[in-house]
Design a protein that fits this description.
single chain; alpha/beta; eight-stranded mixed beta sheet; five-stranded antiparallel beta sheet; binds adenosine-5'-diphosphate; binds magnesium ion
Length: about 375
């Protein structure tokens, strides 16, 4: 990488040099991905545990920008078991969305690239590594096996088409073979009812702007469910809604969870939401997993100082405090990460080992893992970072 000036800004010459180097790297990745007739053996893989729907294994997703390489996700490993909800939590910018977009392979191209690691997707009879699958195959996986509920329902819907036509289109595209128009419409109505829209025939004929935010999000959820996906990614699905509607949508997702038996990856910065939804919790910080475990592990025995800080900064009803705690400092610059624990500069619980390399993943129990020097004493570190 080109050197920076003392004032921290890149000169035009350096920026040109970086951008030329980046183009070389990203062109090579893109060429690989755009190939046609790639043999299945190249992206066929086996699940480490067949009870998992998805396994993220040492995922590295970088953005090659003109200002340098942003290591948005830098060695993330966790599993999403079939029929369970995994909550991914962490403050804004820690790489939650980039992790989920890597699974969908919907990263901003050509800058965004998975440079290392595997994402194994369980298709039932076989498993694919989506990071190696070519575009042709990915198009079939999206919607049929993995679908996504985005944060802002108004941008997920097309403002100039009727609700019914938009849901019909999803069904026709992924699940429409041999179905007549009337059958597709019947399925749309059924889905709209399933997500709690009472006047489904009426809503079928409406445009997105005629619906409230909560109703729109219900439509988006109906679209995500259209083809019985094995994995549903919900990326901050209630952040754009007001609190009462948020509670309704969470209720709906919880009910659906029991009915559809899909794995859900639930992304949020809100620990309260995670507490209501998740079976397992993954805590991310600056592009890495710092702690993971069952919801009980994380809520009753938080181990990483960052998780402890997140808990302390959550208001509790009935508890009187003078001022709400906030974690001091800010996230390090993702272009220039330190070579020691990323949380060290903000940490109020440092111990002796903290000056050393990035801390290893330590198992506290069968389900509970943490990456922190407070727990290394007398414990064997896991070598593969899982
Ligand atoms: N298209 C992009 N180009 C460059 N950097 C990006 C891009 N998308 C995301 N990033 C960076 O990746 C990091 C993780 O972002 P993101 O996954 O969106 O965070 P969040 O946890 O809030 O969902 C951030 O530092 C962000 O600036
Ligand atoms: Mg996000």
């Amino acid at each position: 990488m080109a050197k920076k000036n003392t004032d921290g800004y890149l000169s035009a010459r350096d920026a040109r040099k970086i951008s030329k180097e980046n183009r070389k790297i990203t062109n090579a990745y893109e060429k690989q991905r755009k190939r046609k007739n790639v043999p299945e053996s190249e992206y066929l893989t086996t699940m480490h545990d067949p009870r998992n729907a998805v396994e993220f294994d040492n995922l590295h997703t970088y953005f090659f920008t003109d200002a340098g390489t942003v290591k948005a996700v830098d060695g993330v490993s966790f599993d999403v078991p079939i029929g369970k909800t995994v909550g991914v939590v962490g403050e804004s910018g820690c790489g939650k969305s980039v992790t989920s977009l890597s699974l969908m392979q919907l990263l901003q191209r050509p800058q965004g690239q998975v440079v290392e690691g595997e994402i194994r997707l369980n298709l039932g009879s076989k498993a694919y590594d989506v990071t190696k699958a070519p575009n042709e195959v990915l198009q079939k996986l999206r919607g049929n096996f993995v679908s996504m509920i985005f944060q802002e329902p108004m941008t997920a819907l097309n403002p100039v088409f009727r609700i019914g036509d938009q849901v019909d289109e999803v069904i026709a595209l992924h699940d429409g073979e041999g179905k007549s128009e009337a059958e597709i419409k019947a399925r749309t109505i059924e889905l709209l009812e399933m997500v709690g829209i009472a006047n489904s025939e009426g809503v079928y004929m409406m445009y997105p702007h005629e619906l409230s935010g909560g109703m729109r999000q219900r439509v988006v959820i109906a679209m995500a469910l259209a083809c019985n996906p094995k994995v549903i990614i919900a990326d901050e699905p209630t952040t754009a809604l007001d609190v009462t509607i948020q509670a309704q949508i969470l209720d709906l997702l919880r009910q659906l969870k029991d009915r559809i038996n899909s794995a859900i990856m639930f992304i949020t910065h809100d620990l309260g939401v995670i507490a209501e939804m998740a079976d397992y919790v993954v805590v991310m910080y600056a592009g890495r997993v710092v702690e993971q475990g069952t919801a009980e592990d994380i809520f009753y025995h938080p181990a990483h100082p960052y998780t402890i800080g997140l808990m302390a900064s959550k208001p509790v009803v009935g508890k009187k405090v003078d001022s709400l705690y906030s974690i001091p400092g800010k996230v390090p610059n993702p272009i220039n990460m330190p070579n020691y624990c990323y949380f060290k500069d903000r940490c109020e619980m440092c111990v002796e080992g903290c000056d050393g390399d990035y801390p290893p993943m330590i198992s506290l129990s069968e389900t509970h893992k943490v990456s922190c020097y407070r727990y290394t004493e007398g414990k064997e570190a896991e070598t593969d970072g899982r």
